[in-house]
Amino acid sequence: MNSFNYLSIIIKDELRAAREEFRESKVMIIAFLCVLIALIIYLDPFPNRHIYFATDDRSSDWHSFAEESASILKEKGLDVSVIDTDGAIDNVIRLNDSKDKVNTAFTFGAALNQNQIDGIYSLGSISYEPIWIFYKTNKIHQLKDLKDLTRYTVGLGPSKSGSYMIAKKILMNFGIDVTTNSHFVSGRFLDVHNRFLNGDLDAFIFVSTYQDPIVQGLLRAPNVALYSFSNAISYQKKHSYLQAVNLPAGSIDLLNQIPPKEVSLVATTTSLVVRRDMHPDLQLALIMATKDIIRSSTDLLFAKRNEFPAYVDSLIPISPVAQRFYDYGPPHAARYLPYWIAGFIDRAWLLLLALVTVFYPLSKLNIHLRKFRFVMKERPHYEALLEMDKLLLKRKLSDEEKGVLLNKLDRINQDAIEEGAAVGEEKPYFDLLSSISMLRKKIESN
Fold first, then answer.
1. Residues 87 and 184 in one domain
2. Is there a single domain that holds both residue 302 and residue 434?
């Protein structure tokens, strides 16, 4: 017999044993397959590849950041659509609308109510956005305290904007309710900005980055001053979503010394948020793209190098994916494999470790199914032989009893021959036949 023929016999015996095992244990095997399928479904290795990114108006920093993210994510095989919106609150309203396709967005935690927060996760903050309070020096000689604003006409952003909601919360510290106080008016940012420049408004409060054209223009505008928070640290201690930051003298324009002196500000942070049911691999891809953009950013006016992304605004619950990222860093597999494979391995590694832990020791036992099946069939025959042998030791048998036992031996012998022997089990097979022959002699001589 050559090696090929021997191998083919082994394969046939293994397949025959597997077929018999399945026939006898099909309920257990089907249950195992169901559990395996359920695990695959739970781990969900095949995400939808489309990200719909809600930002702000087309001229905003949020829109620009989303466009940069899109270019990185498209290189990873994802489709990204950047969507213009009305800002922080509108973004979350759309995220919470199951009929809307938006699945990620920028927002401010402080601008949201609890119902809006309950449907989203934070992937972390990406930047500081100060609360800017500009006032006309020809109308307000010096703004010592925010309580003084009640004596003047103050412009705010749209009533459904993040800027409006944050300004409302800040002023409530001083017992000022902007919804009932007639000194505070809201409107579209450009309209309020123009009214402020024209002298119709004495002050203007809004939230934005320092690169915002409105901020840049007002910092250079004549008869306009920027309010400095003398107790900025107190705001930070009182509100988890606020951070004290400094605008150094000359940091906007060294040549013209803008601002002329250091200004203390309080800032909130822009949070990158997603629907809670967004696929974890897409969340991981978003965080990694954000990290890449910020790493190469030259915008270090308020943030330190590599400070963002980070989980700063605790008003929005952190995504479990983001939590793992900030605790342990990106999956090592992400350096070499596509994002969805790396994410799947990151989620499944405990299961894979458990499987290895269980099956590696079993593999050392060198269990062959054909041998296992042969032993299972052989064992009942030996049990029957042992019972007969015990009976022979107890007493002398009658001719009729001997005939019964010999008939049983014939049936056992016939069954053993019909079942045959698996490859490698020939010796145990003939040992059984020899045992039958020896017992027959003992019965006959009893």
1. yes
2. no
pLDDT tens-place string over residues 333-362: 676 776 666 666 766 666 667 666 665 565
Rg of the chain on CA atoms, in Å: 39
Decide: residue 23, CB within 10 A, 0-12 exposed, 13-18 middle, 19+ buried: exposed
Q: Could you list the beta-strand ranges (E) of 137-189.
A: 154-156, 184-186
**What's the maximum distance between 2 C-alpha atoms anywhere in the chain?**
131
Q: How far is CA 161 from CA 22, 215, 263, 355, in A?
A: 64, 17, 25, 51
Same domain membership, residue 135 and residue 54 = yes
Boundary of a domain, candidates 299, 330, 361: 330
How far is it, in rounded angstroms, from Cα 430 to Cα 417?
Answer: 10
* Residues 194, 155 contacting (CB under 8 angstroms): no
Rounded alpha-carbon distances, angstroms, from residue 49 to 55, 75, 283? 19, 12, 11
Residue 118 is predicted with a pLDDT of 93
On whether residue 18 sits in a domain, the answer given is no
> Can you read off the two tokens belonging to residue 301?
């006016």
Residue 286 contacts residue 70 (beta carbons within 8 Å): no
Count the Cβ atoms, other than its own, within 10 Å of residue 114: 7
Domain that holds residue 304: 50-330
Four-residue CA torsion sign, 119, 122, 127, 130 = positive
What contacts 444, CB < 8 A, 6 or more positions away?
402, 406
pLDDT score, position 91: 95
Smallest CA-to-CA distance from 155 within 132, 175, 138, 130 is with 132
Neighbours of 295 (CB within 10 A): 10
Cα four-point dihedral sign 246, 251, 252, 256: positive
Please give the Cα distance from 373 to 416 (Å, whole number): 13
52 by Cβ neighbours in 10 Å (0-12 / 13-18 / 19+) ranks as: middle
Contact call for residues 440 and 434 (beta carbons, < 8 A): no
Helix (H) or strand (E) holding 81: strand 79-83
C-alpha to C-alpha distances, 378 to 137, 383, 410, 432, 434, nearest whole angstrom: 103, 9, 15, 8, 13
- Reply yes or no: is the peptide bond before residue 309 cis, omega within 30 of 0: yes
Instruction: Encode pLDDT of 304-336 as tens digits.
Output: 888 999 999 999 999 999 999 999 888 776 767
Domain count, the chain: 2
What's the rounded Cα separation, in Å, for the pair 354 and 364?
16
Q: Rounded to an integer, what distance in angstroms lies between the CA atom of residue 172 and that of residue 181? A: 12
353 found inside a domain? no
Q: What is the value of pTM for the model shown?
A: 0.69
